Amino acid sequence: MSKSLKIGLGAAVVVGLWVVGRITEAVQWYKIPTPSNYPTIKVGDHILASNLVKPERFNFICFYATGSDMVKQIWIQRLCGLEGDTIEIRNGVLLVNNKYADSNFSPGYLYIMSRSESEKIPELIEQSEMSTVNAAGDSTTTCLSDKIVRDHGLNAERVVLATDEKDEMIEQRYKTSWNADHFGPIVVPRGKYFVLGDNRRNAMDSRYIGFIDKSDYIGTVLGR
């Protein structure tokens, strides 16, 4: 067999496996359209996922968002609660089974800083896609991880909702007075997942759309 024929056959096999993988969802490739998982996953990033991998707590997973008031879409968020887990968000920080969990990864929180501080990280301010400057122009709020704040030595303060600040969407979903930063505790039911976006103040996740059916799971993110 000639070298060119071997190369051609090899390429055909690779293409064939890729097509089969896409059809069976064993291999999935997505381009990220929203900042809901910033700063971990940015708009425009490409991610590889597979349904051959069993999802574990704190993995990113792909799933069908199929709420009664939603058009069926494929979403990607972090799996934070398995069935039987107790989920709580206290002062904006996630607890799973009464243990602080955000140290397992590096989610983004809403921070406020002076305009001069924000000028130290112009590329990050632009990437977050939710930065705002106050009316006087002397302060900026944006989504950053604690690690980014530490690494850049920023003089910034985390913005946390007051416990009595209502969120109508969460109240309607769970029939409680919780909000994005003060949520739960609640137990994940059998056959369900609880997901969160890493961009905690700009993600439409289980706080708003409810638990995710295991049957709507598509795959686990393997890398970017």
TrEMBL record:
Coiled coil: none annotated. Keywords: Hydrolase, Protease. Residues 13-221 form the Peptidase S26 domain. One of its GO terms (cellular component) is membrane. GO terms for biological process: signal peptide processing. It holds the Pfam family Peptidase_S26. InterPro entries: LexA/Signal_pep-like_sf, Pept_S26A_signal_pept_1, Peptidase_S26. The keyword Nucleotide-binding does not apply. It is a single-pass type II membrane protein. Its EC number is 3.4.21.89. It catalyses: Cleavage of hydrophobic, N-terminal signal or leader sequences from secreted and periplasmic proteins. Belongs to the peptidase S26 family. It comes from Taibaiella soli. This is Signal peptidase I. One of its GO terms (molecular function) is serine-type endopeptidase activity. It is found in: Membrane. It comes from the Bacteria.
